[in-house]
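Student: Send me a single protein entry containing the residue sequence and its fold in token form, directly below this note:

Tutor:
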Amino acid sequence: MAKKNYYNVLNISTNATDDQIKKAYRALAHKYHPDKNPNNLEAEMLFRDVSEAYDSLRDPKKRRDHDRSLQKTINKTSKTSAKKPSEGIGEAIGDLFGDLFSSEGSGKFKPFAKRGTDLKYQLHLGLEDLADGCEKQVTFMRQRSGKEQTAKLNVKIPPGITTGQRMRLKGEGDESLDGGKNGDLAVEITIDRHLLFEKKGADVHLDLPVTFTDAVLGAKIRIPTLRGLVEFDLPKSTPSGKTFRLKGQGFRLSKDSEPGDQFVRVLIDVPDQVGDNFRKLLEESNAYRDQHAQINDYSDKLARILKVRK
């Protein structure tokens, strides 16, 4: 089948702007839409041609490809016309621009079977979704039976997926306008930043602020993991910065892999402001500085350094 001239289909010039292309498409699509022309095969074919032309010319790459192909056809037609001057100009134009109906024998319509348009969907995931993989429902618009319809699909997210990866769902894009295959739906993954967790490979890290009292006396604290809350036993005399490991509370990097671990770093939260009563308690606790092992160790080492310097 001869290549259609999409500029002629939309009745625009070859140097038409994007806005002019869109305006022409909307006018013709409205004119030939199946809802306005029920049981009208010719209008239906024109509507498909118009949609096909717009799909090609609105995309810069497709438009360049179309222009190159059209130029080759023009060059080929010019050579053919020079060799066969007896051909009517109408036949030459028919070869160049194509037609809604074939000129071969029966005169029956032969559609140019073009795939439907591929669609994209941006899917945002939280770190909890990545722990063991998950299933998400996506809702989007696509063309079916010449109309924009809402579609809902359940998408299985495998463990180990990362930002920027794409999942291609075959045949879930726009319907072909002339009997070809449906387009595909490309689901692109974006992992959102978490309020508390940080992902490092298969492991997850959490900073846990605690009071001075809990760090000294120990405490049972409910902390979040990727799979829910767990009770964490904070040992007594825990220094700020100490990290604890919760085995198996990290991410699976594949369906059959073992999950990584969760690392909990304890940070003693020092208050910005201190009331009179609290200040008094702290001052009284200073009387027990000799019970601070790290401070005593630091003081001993500092004394040795100063002694050497004398």
Observations:
- Residues 78 and 84 are 10 Å apart (CA to CA).
- Residues 60-83 form the longest helix (24 residues).
- The chain has three domains: 6-97, 119-191, 197-305.
- The radius of gyration is 35 Å.
